Amino acid sequence: MSAPPVRVVLADDERMVRTALRVILDAEPGLEVVGEAATGAEAVSVVRELRPDVVLMDVRMPEIDGIRATEQILGGMETPPRIVVVTTFENDSYVYEALRVGAAGFLLKRAAAEDLVQAVRLVARSDCLLFPSAVRALAAEHARRQPAAPPPWAARLTEREAEVLRLMATGLTNAEIADRLRVGSATAKSHVAAVLAKTGVRDRTQAVIAAYESGFITPR
């Protein structure tokens, strides 16, 4: 029995952009565009009604922007979708703020079709960072430049969990972390879950942001 398709909502104020994204995604097996929104407020409403797995969210939209829409969706649903913000410039401060409030990653509007498809599949699977080098670069750019006291959650991490957080920040999947640490996949998954719980974040992207912002990981 085949797995159900990954259900996607597109949120962008440009109809041509939404149409192009729909054509690309609907042509892929296992992916299905189930709804569209032209404003941030509409995106919140459509997502709450349709409950997709993934949302592609433009960061700059009328009524409310993609940051506030992301915040409202993630804060108002018991099982929220994974949200990928779509932007023209990767160093846009809007993108960083979207990641801070809970977006799972970001995608450039000029990205190739195969990168778009990969992004949707990766965030739906949710066991690795979306384009880790880009997320790390953005986090490092906004990291504290002055030495800071260790974050409160750092003392709660075991040595192994601290190591796992550093490996997560490099973009390794659960399977790759298990291989690196020579432990079983279930053990690696348990360590990752413990890191997310102790740092008080939603997923890997927010864990990386927290690690850099707090000084737990120092930009090189």
UniProtKB/TrEMBL annotation:
Name the Gene3D superfamilies for this protein: 3.40.50.2300
Q: What is this protein called?
A: Response regulator
Tell me which domain of life the UniProt entry assigns to the organism this sequence originates from.
Bacteria
Which residues in this protein are found as 4-aspartylphosphate?
58
Record-annotated HTH luxR-type domain positions: 150-215
Q: Which organism is it from?
A: Streptomyces flavidovirens
Q: Which InterPro entries match?
A: CheY-like_superfamily, NreC/VraR/RcsB-like_REC, Sig_transdc_resp-reg_C-effctor, Sig_transdc_resp-reg_receiver, Tscrpt_reg_LuxR_C, WalR-like
Question: Which of UniProt's keywords are assigned here?
Answer: DNA-binding, Phosphoprotein, Transcription, Transcription regulation
Residue intervals of the Response regulatory domain:
7-124
